[in-house]
Design brief:
Radius of gyration: 26 Å
Strand content: 15-25%
Distance between the termini: 42 Å
Structural class: alpha/beta
Largest sheet: 5 strands, mixed
Length: about 300
Amino acid sequence: MPQPVRPPEPRMNDKTEPSKQLSLFDGVDLAIPALQPSPPPTPFPQAPAPRQAPQAEAPEPPATRRYDDGKHRFDYVLRRASRRSIGIRIDDQGIVVSAPRWVGQGQVQAMLADKAAWVMRQHGLREQRRQAQQAARIDWREGGRLPYLGRTLTLRLGASGRDPRLLSETGELHLPLPADCDARRVRDSAQAWMQREAMALFAQRTDHFARQLGVTVKAIKLTSAATRWGSATACGTLRLHWRLLHFSPAIVDYVVAHEVAHLREMNHSPRFWQTVGELFPEWRDARSELRHSLLPPW
């Protein structure tokens, strides 16, 4: 039964994007209008000075500074730029303050005093997520743990034959590699297996949703894009990130249904989200889960 039309969802790009983790991905930005100084009085006309060849100015190197008001303490990099506001960016490289060239250090300090609690909170959240990601890093060796479709597989080396084998009952992925194999070969073997599994699963789920919607998918391609989980073209080609297999089947279904829905609506209008809901009613929960999921570093 079709769901009622809901208010427009928050604006997104015409593609599903990885959760902002990072990872991998974007940091947090804040812009604060700067107080522009009053223009100097107009001087009396003077004779033009002799023209001189312009000299290239050396760029001002970023300066690392310390903010400390007794309660909040953090280091930041100050960058000077051609802009009208003072901006703060918090990402994996730390805290960066970008200020117009005409803004004095006093105004920068006043802005930081006003936003110090926000900076500390965001930086703390970023650091917690970074540590969680490092803890999720996969150990490519015998006994290593590999997240796979909502469960965790144990890597086993020394299997006979030529192809990896998944033993579902024990949750073990047996790889045909020597027990003392180096980490890169273990990772490459697991990656090749996951990509084959991803193609098979994506084809199955795409066919399921395309039949429901009555659309035709011309081709499915795997992607390793750093900023999106999937995309669709008007001619019927879907691109899906093979590392979605680290997450639950519900997340896989959400991304696949999202891209199949684009074959009817190449936008993110209310009609598009209604179509997604018809294909996969639990899409809101799955999208929230994806946004809060950690992609393990490789």
